[in-house]
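Continuing the series of single-chain predictions for the mutant panel. This is the parent chain; the variants come on the following pages.
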Amino acid sequence: MKVFAVAFMMVLLFSACVSNVYFGKVHAASMWNQTYGGSNDEYGYSVVETSDGGYTIAGETLSYGAGNTDVWLIKTNATGTVQWNQTYGGTSLDNGLSVVETSDGGYIVAGYTVSFGAGGADVWLIKTNATGTAQWNQTYGGPNNDVGWSVVQTGDGGYAIAGRTDSYGAGGRDFWLIKTNATGTAQWNQTYGGPNDDQGVSMVKTSDGGYAIIGYTYSFGAGGHDVWLVKTNATGTVRWNQTYGGPNDDYGRFVVQTTDGGYMVASFTNSSGGEGYNFWLFKTDATGMVQWNQTYGGTGDDVVRSVVQTGDGGYAIVGVTDSYGSGSTDVWLVKTDSAGTVQWNQTYGGLSGDEGSLVVQTSDGGYAIAGFTWSYGAGLADVWLLKTDEYGIVPEAAWVILPLMLVATVSIFICKKKLLRKHSEVVKF
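Parent structure:
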């Protein structure tokens, strides 16, 4: 079956390449890709389109900084050219997983640090000015490993961080929500979980002033790991929670509040949709009840990373595919209508492993995808930023994919590598 899937995707890629050559002359300024990195590994996990029309990417670098991995913040102009970059860290492991542009034109970065803090890994919050110079930083955690996956700026000028804690809570790992003031001092925190491992991965500030956190639970649900959505009020008290999944493993990865007050959850499932893991997109009402769900994928593992509601009321989902594309793993962007029906999809990558971490819809109606690539760039893994048009087309791909299509068709069967991280675990412990 995979032979047919690959053949089908080659036809799609050929069509995309023809489109790229034709439309690239008209839209080239808004369609491009750039890599950033040195001789070692660099990974991009989060991106925001900035108020000046450029982009800021948060991730980690092993090539630059103080030692081991450091948080890496890269600011580009509208065509992906670096304007500045900054590293933050010590001699151990430090990582930036989420970035937001703040109301004063600076940035807030959440992640984790093993270099500083109370012990193990601690949640790390870094506030910078508009050129990436750190203004302050704060760590939060206990003797074990605590990770900040997602950050938002709150209406009072403070910040909310969602992630996981091994130091506090009911047992194992628990969801952890921390609310700070404008200088990062914790005002309150809440844990959510049961006796087993429960991990919060993504958060959105909701229209009623509360928070919605998505992740996965091994303490509750139908079996294995289940997707878990927790809705709180403004002080972190649980209003309601829902689990979603089947007898196998299902992981929640990203949540957005939709224009009707409900929620769109991007997840991946091994309980339904076919072989391996599949992208799993489901829409809930304002109380977390499922209104519809769709799976997308092939015979390999297809793992979702993020989702955004688009201007036309549909959704764009990004992640990594082991079923389609030109090589080992490729970035996969799927665009759906408001009911989850696929309108188009695109893969991006070369013969080695390439992954998409986060997608945003840009002010021109296209998409910006942050991730990392082993196929291109200066060294091993490099941060990869792709800017597409409204149909997911990147014209530069035309000059790369056409010569490699025959090679990819053969090599995909004889040197396939399993590079994707199935559980979205980018921490090193």
